[in-house]
Amino acid sequence: SLLAHYTEDSVAFVSNLHSSNIQVNGGTVSLRNAAIALTGEKNYIQVRELGSLWAESTTIQAAYLQVDASGSVSLRDVSMLGDVVCAGSLAADNFVHQGGSLTVLEGATLSLDGDSALSNLTVQSGAIASISGIRSLNTLTLSLGASVEISGNDFTSLASLVLTDVSDGSYVELGYNDWGTMDKDEIFARLGEYAPYVTLDGITVAEWNASRFYVNNLNTSGAGSLAYAISQVNAYSGNLKPTIFIDAALSGSTLN
């Protein structure tokens, strides 16, 4: 084990011990241009209360990195294989997480910036997270009981979004990200069952749908007719610009 205080500008710590681990107990570990490869039954890094880990231009392979409450970790240009569980403070810039999950627990803080790639990110209730600069993410799990700011991320390859602790009137803003399209209909459709709890540029799916009027029969006076759609637009009181969509054959003087 590597205990207490360890500082080195250039470190290569490789252990093949059966129970190999790094524990930071109230001190500071600084790593630059390092290669950390832990193997064995208990191959983990633990930053305990009041401990601090700083790493730059470093690769880390471990079963998991655990940040206890009051512990802090700062990663810059770091590539890691293994899970990350944070109950303290984690700041990452240009972080490549090659497999595993990153979980931010209640009371923890996450600051994620730069050109980062992650497999699975979970933010639990009571956590504080600022998430920006993700270029690749497979699964995002968010509690609506967390305080989050999410913008400037590339969500074109996001395979799964899961929202927890949802309730009527609770929302998370996800509009200021790249979804591969500007069409809110497409984005809300991708969100599936969680669409009612998401705002896109401050707009809920209910507000969005209420501003859209669809015509499938031009000549009748009931629902689905142009006359009915126009009457609804005239009575519309929302903040969005209402839009009429016509899916019907036009002929003669129908629109006169």
What percentage of amino acids are in beta strands?
over 45%
Mean pLDDT: 87
Would you tell me the structural class of the helices and strands?
Answer: mainly beta
Tell me about the largest β-sheet: 16 strands, parallel
Q: Stretches where pLDDT falls below 50 for ≥5 residues? A: 1-19
> How many strand segments?
21
Give helix and strand order, one letter per element, not per position. Answer: EEEEEEEEEEEEEEEEEHEEHEHE
Outline, from the CA principal axes? elongated
Helix content: under 10%
Based on CA atoms alone, the radius of gyration comes out at 25 Å
**Number of helices in the DSSP assignment:** 3
Termini separation (Å)?
A: 83 Å
Write the layout of secondary structure elements.
Elements: E1 6-7, E2 12-15, E3 21-24, E4 28-32, E5 35-38, E6 44-47, E7 52-67, E8 72-86, E9 89-97, E10 101-104, E11 109-113, E12 116-123, E13 128-131, E14 134-143, E15 147-150, E16 160-164, E17 172-173, H1 184-191, E18 198-200, E19 203-204, H2 205-210, E20 212-215, H3 226-235, E21 243-246
Parallel strand pairs: 1-4, 2-5, 3-6, 4-7, 5-7, 6-7, 7-8, 8-9, 8-10, 9-11, 10-12, 11-13, 12-14, 13-15, 14-16, 17-18, 20-21
Antiparallel strand pairs: 18-19
